[in-house]
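Budget justification aside, the reviewers requested a transparent look at the raw inputs and outputs of the sequence design task funded under Objective 1. We therefore reproduce one unedited record. The lines immediately below are the C-alpha cells for a 297-residue chain.
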C-alpha cells in the first residue's frame, strides 16, 4: 500500500496498531514496530529491555519501543507525567512508580484498542492516579502548563507533523518542565521503495525524518538544555528488507551511507522568556559528554 496525505497516514497507523495491540510481544519485537513480517535473523530489532526497570508490567509491554525514555526522564515523586502514544501503558506504569501515589500519569493514544487495553491493565493494578485518554498528540487533550515531565517511546515518527507535536509539548509542559523522548531518525535518504510503503511507515522507519531536522524543530521552538541521552544504530535485517527491495536495490542500500538511529532526546521548557540565542545542531551534546549539573545529566 502506498501512502499519500496526512489523513491517510493516520488511518493506516490507527488500523495497523489496532491489530498490533492484539499481537504477542515476540512478534512485535522481531519485526519493525510490529508492522512488518517478523525476522528469522534478529529478535530485538528496535526494542530495549524494560524488564529490570521498577514498575515494569509484562502484560503492558508490547515490544514496540525503540528506547527507554522513562529511565532517563528524571521523574520525581508527585510529578504530573504525560506519555505520548501510551500503547498498553507500560511507560505510564513505570512513570507511576517514580511519581508515587501522590503524582499523576496521563497516557494519550489515538488507537481505541490500545486505550482500552491500557485501561484494563491500570484497573487490574489498582492505579487510580493513572488515566488514559483517547486523542491525537498533534492536538493533545490536556490543558496548558500541566506536565512536569513528558515521555514518548517511538511514536513521533508515526506522526505526519512532528513540529506540531513539539509545539504541543511546549504548550503542555510547565515552565521548567522537561521531556525525554525516544524516537527513530535518519542520516541520509531511504530508498523510495521503503520511503513510500505504508507498512514501513507503520513500522517506524519511513515516517522518520532527518536527525538534523528533528532536533532542529526542538531548537527552533526555544527549548533549553537539549541533549541526546542515548543513541544507537538500528539495523534492519535482510529478510525484512527483501520484502521491499530486489537484490540489486538491497546491495545498493547496504553500501549506502544511510544511518537509521534510535535517539533519546532531552529538553526543558524555559522558566522565563524564550532565549533568542539558538544552539547549533552540531553543538547538542550526548550523555557521556554532558557538563556535570546540566539539565540533561
Amino acid at each position: 500500500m502506498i501512502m499519500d496525505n496526512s489523513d491517510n497516514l493516520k488511518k493506516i497507523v490507527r488500523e495497523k496498531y489496532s491489530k498490533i495491540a492484539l499481537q504477542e510481544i515476540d512478534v512485535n519485537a522481531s519485526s519493525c514496530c510490529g508492522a512488518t513480517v517478523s525476522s528469522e535473523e534478529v529478535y530485538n530489532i528496535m526494542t530495549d529491555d524494560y524488564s529490570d526497570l521498577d514498575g515494569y508490567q509484562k502484560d503492558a509491554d508490547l515490544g514496540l519501543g525503540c528506547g527507554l525514555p522513562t529511565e532517563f526522564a528524571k521523574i520525581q515523586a508527585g510529578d504530573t507525567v504525560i506519555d505520548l502514544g501510551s500503547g498498553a501503558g507500560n511507560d505510564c506504569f513505570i512513570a507511576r512508580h517514580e511519581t508515587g501515589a501522590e503524582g499523576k500519569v496521563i497516557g494519550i493514544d489515538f488507537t481505541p484498542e490500545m486505550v482500552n487495553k491500557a485501561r484494563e491493565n491500570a484497573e487490574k493494578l489498582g492505579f487510580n492516579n493513572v488515566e488514559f485518554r483517547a486523542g491525537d498528540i498533534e492536538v493533545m487533550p490536556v490543558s496548558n502548563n500541566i506536565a512536569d515531565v513528558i515521555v514518548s517511546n517511538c511514536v513521533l515518527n508515526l506522526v505526519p507533523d512532528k513540529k506540531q507535536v513539539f509545539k504541543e509539548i511546549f504548550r503542555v509542559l510547565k515552565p521548567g518542565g522537561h521531556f525525554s523522548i525516544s524516537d527513530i531518525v535518519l542520516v541520509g535518504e531511504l530508498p523510495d521503495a521503503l520511503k513510500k510503503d505504508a507498512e514501513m511507515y507503520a513500522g517506524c522507519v519511513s515516517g522518520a525524518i532527518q536527525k538534523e531536522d528533528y532536533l532542529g524543530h526542538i531548537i527552533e521552538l526555544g527549548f533549553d538544555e537539549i541533549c541526546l541521552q542515548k543513541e544507537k544504530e538500528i539495523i534492519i535485517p535482510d529478510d525484512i528488507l527483501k520484502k521491499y527491495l530486489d537484490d540489486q536495490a538491497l546491495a545498493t542500500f547496504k553500501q549506502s551511507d544511510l544511518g537509521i538511529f534510535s535517539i533519546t532526546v532531552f529538553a526543558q521548557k524555559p522558566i522565563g522568556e524564550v532565549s533568542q540565542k539558538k544552539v547549533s545542531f552540531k553543538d547538542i551534546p550526548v550523555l557521556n559528554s554532558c557538563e556535570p549539573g546540566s539539565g540533561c545529566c
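The longest helix spans residues 6-20. The CA atoms of residues 186 and 260 lie 5 Å apart. Computational costs for records of this kind are itemized in the attached budget.
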